[in-house]
Amino acid sequence: MKKSLLSIIAITNISFSVFSQKNDKNSNINSDSIKQVIVEKLNGFYLNYNFPEDYKQTLEANIADYEFNLAQTSKKLLANPTLRKHKIDSLDSNYGQWQGNQIIQIENASKLWDKLSQRHELNDQFKQNFIIYHFYIGLEDSDEQVKNKIKALSQSKELKQLAKTIAQNETNRVVSKCSALNKLDSVAINYGSKKLMSYLSKIVLSTLDSSTELKLIRDSDQYCDYTMEVVKKKQAEIQEKTKAKEDELFIDNVLKGGLSAEVGNTILKLIQQRSEDLNELKKSSKTTNSMSELFESTDQKTKTEIKQEFSEKLAKLITYKQFAQVFGSQFQENMQIKTIEKMSAIQDTYDLTKGQVDKVNEMVQTYYFNEELTSAYYAFNKTLKKQKLSALSFGLEKKYKELMEGFNLKIKEGKKIDKRTYQWE
Hints:
Blueprint: H1 2-5, H2 14-24, H3 31-49, H4 56-76, H5 81-120, H6 127-139, H7 144-154, H8 157-177, H9 186-206, H10 220-256, H11 261-285, H12 290-295, H13 303-317, H14 320-327, H15 332-349, H16 354-377, H17 382-406
């Protein structure tokens, strides 16, 4: 039987031709009756177990060999019943083993597909090639043509697509369960997912000759760690590029404000130092508690001291107006929120025309913008900041009163906080 198994890839109808050649020397064998038996056995065997189409000739050749040898042995050893029975039993045993092995391998391949398709919700487009591939592998045939057939199947478009489909399903599952990824950049996560899918595709493709791909779920932590490493590296690259772009735009803005690139780079160094100090403080706070801090001798700066130091150095480097030019955009959002709230209150009190609303809105915007700038620029000195904010508020209250009176509107009498400052309604 082993000799016939080596004929899997044959493309000519060898069974009947071989049978005919042997039958020429043994004309006493009824070829027609044996051919009929071969056809019946082949049809039953092939159809019942859904063997690969290109394996049909191999089945036919093995059945033909068995039937021919059985007929020949029965005729030749008719006069020696004992030897005849021994030879026939041997033929039956070999044929039974061969037949059983064919059935086991095709059933195992089909069962493996069922498990795989259910686990990954696969459609039948991959089924045929997968079963054929596993069937041939299960035969463990050493014939070179069989090896080539297995190799061709392993590199087929269908099996590669199958590996990608499985890898995609596993990637989606790993990423959804790897909660640490949620804290990272979405662009980096998407990049990491693609890398993981490529990584798993290679693993799945290299293990499609076994059931290893069904056990990927056991390696979730490993794949999560792999993805985290890839994503963090990508995120660092993105952040580095983003920072470089932000620094470039910052220097452009500094130049537009009439400052030199040297001053701009000095400011960037101050910002960097501030960030490093705050990060160091954050790390340190995780390793201490309130009781230990009572007796700890340390020169580490507090959060307030870090911010004050930055503000003082910045104020020595650039003026208030330059500060507004360079950092003004950072305060736009807060300014807008405060302006909207204040204008809503004013319009609830007064029936203003569109033109009047625009003028009041401009005044309020200017005030809140300067309030934000003043608080930030003079953060290093509480007393000086309070004086600047007080003067700013007084100036606005005075202008506001004049503007409203110019609209022939009487503003509410506010309490005077002191001889210089009104309470702005």
